[in-house]
Amino acid sequence: MLNLIIVESPSKAKTMKKFLKDGYEIMSSQGHICNLPQKELGIDIENDFKPKYLVDANKKRMVEELRNISKRSDVIYLASDDDREGEAISWHLKNILELDEKKTKRIVFHEITEKAIKKALEKPRTINEDLVNSQQARRILDRLVGYKVSPILWKKIKLGLSAGRVQSVAVRLIVDKEREILDYKAKQDYRVIATFKYKKSIFKSELKNKISKKDDVLKLYKKISNGDFIVENVEKKDVTKSPVAPFTTSTLQQEASTKLGYDVSKTMLLAQHLYEAGKISYMRTDSVILSEDAIKQAKDVILCEYGKEYVQNRQYKNDSKLAQEAHEAIRPTHFADVEVSEDIYEQKLYNLIRNRALASQMADAKLSKTTITIVNNSDKKEYTFITKGETIKFDGFLRLYLVKDEKDDDDDENIKDDSLLPDLKVNDIVNLEKIISKERYSRGPARYSEATLVKELEEKGIGRPSTYAPTISVIQTRGYVVKESREGVKKELEVIKMDNKCNIEESKEVKTEGSEKNKLYPTDIAMITNDFLIKSFPEFLNYDFTANVEKQLDNIADGKENYIQFLHHFYNGLLEQLNKCDSVEKVEVQTARLLGIDPESNRKIYVRKAKFGPVIQIGDKEDSEKPKFVSLPKNQNLETITLEQALRFMNLPKIIGKYKDNDIIVNIGQYGPYIKCGNINATIFDKSRVFDITEQEAIELINKKEQMLLNKNKN
Q1: Using alpha carbons only, what angle is made at residue 531 by residues 542 and 588, rounded to the nearest 5 degrees?
Q2: Do 392 and 523 fall within a single domain?
Q3: Catalytic annotation on 282?
């Protein structure tokens, strides 16, 4: 008897062959075997949106092999993943291979282990048409939006642009955040840290009151210079800290980004490998639930490694009402396994998954938190200083999995462990050793990283676990978003110190503020396209509308909604918006911004997007003299550049000296700022120095470039 099992991945097939040998043939379809055509819509709108599926050209031979072996097989098991995409793969296999209904069965499992596979074989089912319809509805929606809206963008803005039902909304989130940041006005104040002495102990304390002016800092120093300080209150509080739930797709992507520095695509690729190798449970899930078997496994490992006082079994509930909870949380298939991969990146991700799942079944940590309030010992007691700290009385789950608290990391001034604090009581007198006031500026909203964008998409109900990584990938590959690390702005900040002899010292501290690491920035074309889509397709760029579409797709998957009726309703709304777009003239789409008038030529100065990046345009086409263009650095934001900055760029190219009888010229080209001297072009890596780079610094860059070319020619 021949049993054929068809899975979607060769790695999955390889792992399953370890558990199923005699009588089983396991083959892979290598994902979807068919798709919609690339060069046409491929949707028969008049015939209830019937899709036109074509077998991939490079899979025709494999499909023929599957068809031949399926005819010889007694039973065919379709074993693609247990989600909508996997259900659609099985459905396509059944139809295209023309499988016999009587001998075709559908099996699903959430981990690739011998126990799970044999259990699935004992309880096969039929293909779930509701899941297939939901996947088809999503695919058709995305195709309709892409093929109907993208040509509008080509006509009104620029060839090659694309629109997407979820993609465009994700871009809107990033654009909205960027404008929120640009509109933010930083507030200035002083952070005041006092160092106190009690007997032989030294400890730090922060002023509770906000001080925004230098004069008020000096006023504070004057008032406290000759006075003692008294302990007004000591509060000690025992608290418990509970572990967080095991990973969902979203939380895994966020934590892998924070702790391992992985982007979401890398995280999902590594998780896919671990799943297919049988090391973790299914990695696309929004559930935080663990099976009873998994909880028992975790308990046994914790007992063995840490002892019974560390065991505290618990089951979690998902806070989100949108969670489908079709699978378990992400966890190891065998909790006892520690080393599972020779690939260091896979192993690190596995460690993260294992530790988080194990910690979820460990005892709460017990902490003691202390808050000490200190006031100046005068009648008014105008100034209050606060010292906080904590000690761990029982580490519990923290022994295995540390949860990072979001704290102000501006200064390493906070006491983190109150074992360093003296045993203070109310009315104890403490002496001021020194006090430091540092000027600072409030931080604006943070730009999205890939991880925080995933969190935002999940919270707004936009997309589902399987769509986060591809959405974030596509908005970058299509040029709407760039992931970059950018240097901050250097600021001179006031520092005012006073010692215990009332000597006041003022100084300046140079600090770089606003540095960004691996954050998502919208490109200028994203800003332009986003504004056009919001104006022309307000409903489809609406966050709530997009989230509601996801709910309707969930309803289709649950058999609560008819997908044909849903598609008709969606398309009618899209058609209405498309018809309105015909009346929008191309000139209404602003691709250039007027900055002002050039004081020398009296011509208008614009900033605009050109073929190779942003440029300054001097003059209009209608002028007697042709417009002039000056290139800008590629990361220059069209919305933030000022007339003053533009005039500085207009002075380029600029001669800053001579070297070997050649002019040293500073300019900005297609690849950014550079120095030209004779036949040598040397890149200025610090883009902020393009206007103030010195002759000597330029000569050093030229010499380095000459030496590099010389070494290259020698080799």
Answers
A1: 130
A2: no
A3: yes
